[in-house]
Amino acid sequence: MVLNKRITIQTACFFYMLFFSIAVFAQQPADFVNPFIGTSNYGAAFPGPIAPRGMASISPFNVAGSQNKLEKDSQWLSNPYVKENTFLTGFSQVNLSGVGCPELGVILLMPTTGAVEINHLTYGSTYSNEVAKAAYYSVNIDKYNVKAEFTASKRAGVSKFTFPKGKSNVLLNLGLGLTNEEGAMVKVVSPSEIEGMRSVGSFCYNSPEAAYPVYFVAKFSKPADQFGVWKKPSKYEGTEAQWMTYNGKARMMENTTKMVVGDSIGTYFSYQFDKEETVEVKIGVSYVSIENARENLEKETGNKSFEAVYKETYDEWNTELSKILVEGGSTEGKTIFYTALYHTLIHPNTLNDYNGEYPEIKRGKVGTTKNTRYTVFSLWDTYRNLHQLMALAYPQQQSDMVKSMLEMYDENGWLPKWELNATETFTMVGDPASIVIADTYLKGIRDFDVQKAYGAMLKGADQVENNPLRPGLKEYIEKGYLSTNHRGPVSTTQEYNASDYSIALLAKALGKKEDEKRFKNRSLSYRKLFDKNLKLLRPRTADGKWYEPFDPVAGANFEENIGFIEGNAWQYAFMVPHDIRGLIQLMGGEKAFSSQLQKVFDSKQFDMANEPDIAYPYLFNYIKGDEWKSQEMVQKLVRNYFQNQPKGLPGNDDTGTMSAWLVYSMMGIYPIAPGDPVYTITTPMFDKITIQLDSKYYKNKSIVIEREKNTDGKIKTIELDGKKLPGYFISHDDFVNGKTLKVIQN
Amino acid sequence: MVLNKRITIQTACFFYMLFFSIAVFAQQPADFVNPFIGTSNYGAAFPGPIAPRGMASISPFNVAGSQNKLEKDSQWLSNPYVKENTFLTGFSQVNLSGVGCPELGVILLMPTTGAVEINHLTYGSTYSNEVAKAAYYSVNIDKYNVKAEFTASKRAGVSKFTFPKGKSNVLLNLGLGLTNEEGAMVKVVSPSEIEGMRSVGSFCYNSPEAAYPVYFVAKFSKPADQFGVWKKPSKYEGTEAQWMTYNGKARMMENTTKMVVGDSIGTYFSYQFDKEETVEVKIGVSYVSIENARENLEKETGNKSFEAVYKETYDEWNTELSKILVEGGSTEGKTIFYTALYHTLIHPNTLNDYNGEYPEIKRGKVGTTKNTRYTVFSLWDTYRNLHQLMALAYPQQQSDMVKSMLEMYDENGWLPKWELNATETFTMVGDPASIVIADTYLKGIRDFDVQKAYGAMLKGADQVENNPLRPGLKEYIEKGYLSTNHRGPVSTTQEYNASDYSIALLAKALGKKEDEKRFKNRSLSYRKLFDKNLKLLRPRTADGKWYEPFDPVAGANFEENIGFIEGNAWQYAFMVPHDIRGLIQLMGGEKAFSSQLQKVFDSKQFDMANEPDIAYPYLFNYIKGDEWKSQEMVQKLVRNYFQNQPKGLPGNDDTGTMSAWLVYSMMGIYPIAPGDPVYTITTPMFDKITIQLDSKYYKNKSIVIEREKNTDGKIKTIELDGKKLPGYFISHDDFVNGKTLKVIQN
Question: Signal peptide span per the entry (chains A, B) (predicted)?
């Protein structure tokens, strides 16, 4: 039931529909999605339409041009859209959400009027009346008085431009983009079709040799009256430049249907309208071929109207988001909850085409999958909570994600680390795939080849030479830690420990006792970096001495730090989720631990915007009597950092990791120890939460979380199906096999 | 019979074949071809293999790198190869022959050994042991001790590299090229196949918006052990540059099979050989599509060996060149004759693919032809003699050339002026297509739509506004000449006059008396530019006054000149081939005319290297008693300017125009008045010349030209089939309907 949201599209029956729908229909989960959340404060979300785990998406592109507050070329900027900016230069057709590095944000569509102008700084415009919701975005482009509306299917973006009378143009700019990779090819197939490719890559300014193409086919609802390709070549110098009157100048190749390549090229389709007219542009994309992009376009959007595509994608969003139904709580709360859940359903996203083909990782070969092949595995982030959320509410997707990771192992010999569109960016540290796979298996999602997975995990954990996943592994195995000869040695040791612990857990489940013991032991080696005086983890040099000078505070806010990655000693002090009880002992008991943990928050060392410490608010649950501190802290953090506004994310969403934290936190449970199928519990922020369970993986149809007093009050006891829990933890099995988890408040 | 030329290839049976063949077989016409002629002195020929009127050709590329005497970026250079140069950077797969502007000379194949090096200034090498003959070129590449051999079919080049033991590479450089157009796409399809395109265009640094793609598919006889694509991106500046450690650096994309685009890209195919090994690379090209390039390759070279392709193309050359058999004369004479004839059979060349598809002119659409669609119409040059030679000895080709011109009219609305691979470069002045068409029709080659042709000619001659062929036409019609408001007004007036005369001739043949009269009148309007005092043509200003200051000598050697195009008043003084008798009157009679004509030569104003005056040596034939001067002058010019050596052309071959001059001159006849089917006669340079006549167009099987005394001696009388001619002229009809034209010497 989407009627009450479709009113902005179907303006003709605006009033009738408005009253009718408000009177009859309740708001659906998808109606609570506010895509503007995370479009400021470096959240790096984009407000345009995307289908659940879509390959294609459309974002307004407003980060070029110095009139913008945040300009893409003047600083490190990872997103195609910033809410505070004001100057729009197009609508990019492939985008990443919530990442920390520039990539994609290319194939820019832009409606203009009057003479064709190809310089984005000239044809760009201010804009107004932005509307963003699940599967829909619209805006008025001030300079041209054009209304632009957008929706998307999984592999195609659909744009609809309403032009005033007169000369109108649709530009497709293949030069401008967020990625620093350049180069494109384009061919006008007919006055209503364009095909081409854009080279993208160099995520985080890494691995330029892994640049790769995104192919596209664009179909226009009306054939152009005139069309052409522009090309701005590089500039010659020296003698030749004297003869080239066109040196360095953009050229307009009118009417050409030949293939054109270059770093700065684009097409223009022009119309002469004698009244207000709309033009729809459907753009299918593919990472395999132009043919596949065309098939994606045809199969998904074929002869469908803009409205039909929108309705299908809206319905899909509603279906997905309805897997978790929340009742009670404020509209504001539901908005941030469902928007967060929406954000967790963007990445990992679909890589395979409609026909199942996809580019194999690092090999350039074309594979074929019968499942969904997923991509964009920001595993250093997502191993902590996002995959756990998928395993619970979207187990089929999580299963396909594991299968995708195993396909990568087959193709490339290694599990992924930070995979992006079939390239391995090797961004961040650690070996997080093992944690995700163990976690998935131990939650009962087992329809993948676990023996292969286990072999892959062992390879990453044991192959000392030429191991791209675990640099420094030899020293780690020999000494139990990485010395300062390696990058972020303390953080990396902690990450390896966490992975080793997951391997131990899976080894146990598979009856491999030797491995279990060996990896359990390895997982505790962080203890050698524990400085008893500071009660913090601290880097050691290669000869085993503490690294000097040591400032436990240095390294916050992404400063470089000799021991840590994106954090300091305080932010990493408790990041041993698999051995909190061991850490309690190291720190001198529960009281000392709780006091040290509190110090993280009191001294403002806690960083909500980055992953290492995001589970810390829940760690008070390990200290009997201090659990209220977790409840209080989680509520405070949600209040302070998550709001229904563009800056309503604490920072980079990290492909949904921050959002997954919010979803879990608002449900009152949190996967406290990645790999270990256990949740810790805090006060839910809705009266009733119903998680639909997939019958393929779970015996019950759903599990309900309830709070007794329908407030945010402190917890007295917790009951599962009427039986009191001994503490603030519940295993995944107990949870999904129960009917109701009731939080009874004071 | 190619045995005596094949010995350098089939080295195994070298000695046996050598003696066998010399003993048994005489040299065939193709054996006299020396492709090095015209590779110095700006002849702009290339020494590598090409089939008759081939689309593909291979040229050693030695014009990059400052160690070369003539470097492509340091001066205006129109050819991929210069004999004096020494530094080779590859072998280009599409090339123009004998043109005056840089274009094509791209898709550079280069064998190297050792580590892959992608900078041509580093991987380039000196070379030795060049061998060039019809359909074959070979060279040793000094730096790598690699023997490189080349041959070509009509649409594919075939390269054969003999590598020493060790690591070997075949580079395909898509960045480097003679054209200033940039941009390429490449995709490694498999370890033995590459497909892609290179953007070319901007002939004479004109019309950059008409840049167009040449597509290619390369197949290797051995799959590469390693392969990859390199890409050298442009350099970022500013803030971003700090983050891009790879900024501006070439990157090696190992093993990639994805599409790569960029201005400076290429592929490397590497081998590890444990003994001497050969690799053959076949490269099919197309101006339509990659698919067509692949089909061209398959259909023409399929499973054929290098030797088989060579033999086929050699045989084809021999068949073509045998259309004119010469006997007597020196080997040197036969060499320059058959090499010249070879040069006339390169352009216009084939544009259509094996399946008949070709790019339509200026429209980017794909057309299909059942004939041959020709391209590279340098008509300002070739209207003077090359097409006349084709009409005589290769009438089917000339017919297809006219049909190609009419197709262009259908496609584009205009006859071609200087057409190049389906672009109209508008190089040079005049409206020469009309002359070629009239000349062809009047010679009895009439299997084309003459009514359409006539209509096309009238459109070019009469449409006053928006006429791309005849700028300034309004003034020309009103005043009879172009004033100095227009470029090269005197030259252009002369060109328009010549075209108008041809239209008059065709009008007469078609019974269009009014038109005949009108255009005959128009064709004489150059007379208004005749300055009686100077006895020269001279520019007038828009108000009708003589342009001042006027220096009749200025403008030689391609200096700018207000009145003339690529020449001065002396060089244009007699360029009214249709009205020499009128000019004689203007100049004050035969004696004055002859004296003035002699002055052109005596004052060294005659330029053998450019077209306007190349018929002048024959003009003494118009003066009774002075005909010996033509005989003497022609012989002297041949001696001085045409030799069996690289500098053996007077300058740019102008797509065979200089060579056609030589062919006619050595046969002792010359098409003195383009459009008018008449030859003037001088002493033949062979004892006997047999021109095979195509039975489709001519009733006799052949026509023979003989000289009585088998010397270069002066002519006493001329007989056709025993009947004395009244003068030194013979109509085309009389000539081809005769059996023997005998020149009887003193």
Answer: 1-26
